Amino acid sequence: MSRPEPVMPAAEAAPIFAALGDPTRLALLARLSDGEHRSISALASETALTRQAVTKHLHVLEKAGLVRCARTGRETRYAYRPGPLGEAQTYLQQVADHWEAALGRLKALVETPAD
Predict the structure, then answer these.
(1) pTM of the model
(2) pLDDT at residue 86 in the model
(3) What residues form DSSP beta bridges with 38?
């Protein structure tokens, strides 16, 4: 019995999960998830972080595809991109389904009466 290929390969999912594994990046992503585009200065003003630290975290989120940036004059503004997070959620559901099926088979094997 073959199992379906995940929506995204693990190698593509890993940077998303790595980016989400940091509390600072999660907080930045949560702030951006309201749909507003924010500058580095605006994001830094809402935390105790320096603009340089916020920039480094935003670059990790951007590389993972979770945010996008656009230049507006001299300012760079960042916005949330929900697509990769949805794909990661689907990936996790497929992993969960796989383990649920495996545990179900194990349970059936263990509960089968011996002859």
Answers:
(1) 0.77
(2) 87
(3) 78
